[in-house]
Design brief:
Elements: H1 2-7, H2 26-39, H3 45-58, H4 69-77, H5 79-92, E1 102-103, E2 116-117, H6 118-129, H7 143-161, H8 174-194, H9 199-211, H10 237-252, H11 254-261
Parallel strand pairs: 1-2
Helix pairs in contact: 2-3, 3-4, 3-5, 3-6, 5-6, 5-7, 6-8, 7-9, 8-10, 9-10, 9-11
């Protein structure tokens, strides 16, 4: 505006609408930011998830402004807060297969180490894992237990499907994430029945399931399928659902279930 006014002095009187809120506490600032940026101008979903998660943690302890109903529902359910804690754990725990692979909101990934962003991971957890159909969801499961279960789950997947020298496996991209989160309810059901969520147990169950896959889906059980530029790279959402359904069915097959229970 200053540069433009140098050429056209009439712009010195140009009015800019401003809304200034004075002396707001931190939680009110967060709420106002969320309301404005999600109802008027879109804000990055990852930042929205971060704010909703923080609001969920503060809502019972501090005075909060009136929130739109759809935001209030998100805050009350607490899914963003729970999912975000799981993602942060997987991304920072050194033994985690996802260590350093998730680009969190506002993080700088100039080194290019991240293979997926926080937004996608949190959304996938909320859609497939933190749901009533998944045995490890619900209030009886602490976040700490869910963090460990998810880490063991992905450790088993990594052992079977990712070669040690493969740093670009599609397992750690959106297609791999959605595929195995989508199949997780069937897998976690068997683990819950066994009352055993150790990584070795998950690995044995997955190997039995892979052995029971129909011929047209058997490729998913080999590391080559998940190499960059191979079959997994070109899967669309419909194809991912078919592979996930086939894996879930194989887990429920007699031989897979029977062998797993007998371990």
């Amino acid at each position: 505006m200053v540069l433009a006014a140098e050429r056209d002095p009439s712009l010195d009187d140009f009015e800019v609408p401003v809304n200034i809120a004075v002396n707001l506490d931190q939680i009110s600032q967060m709420a106002h930011f969320l309301i404005v940026n999600t109802t008027q101008k879109s804000v990055d979903t990852a930042i929205e998830q971060q704010i909703v998660a923080r609001l969920s943690q503060m809502i019972d302890f501090e005075k909060t402004p009136v929130l739109p109903r759809w935001i209030q529902r998100q805050v009350d359910k607490g899914e963003d807060a729970r999912a975000l804690r799981i993602v942060q754990f997987l991304n920072t725990e050194k033994d985690s297969p996802w260590f350093g692979k998730i680009r969190m909101a506002n993080d700088d990934d100039s080194a290019g180490d991240a293979t997926i962003n926080q937004k996608s991971f949190v959304s996938s957890l909320k859609r497939y894992v933190l749901t009533p159909s998944n045995p490890n969801s619900g209030e009886t499961w602490t976040v700490e237990k869910q963090q460990k279960i998810l880490m063991n789950y992905w450790l088993a997947i990594e052992r079977i499907l990712v070669e040690p020298t493969d740093e670009t496996s599609i397992i750690f991209k959106t297609n791999g994430l959605h595929m195995f989160h989508s199949a997780s309810p069937a897998i976690f059901l068997h683990l819950a029945n066994l009352k055993d969520f150790k990584a070795d147990t998950v690995e044995r169950l997955l190997r039995h399931a892979f052995e029971n896959l129909p011929t047209e889906y058997i490729g998913v059980s080999a590391p080559a399928f998940w190499k960059r530029g191979s079959t997994a790279s070109g899967l669309n959402q419909a194809a991912i659902r078919k592979f996930a359904t086939a894996l879930a069915t194989a887990i429920h097959s007699h031989s897979a279930a029977g062998d797993a229970v007998s371990m």
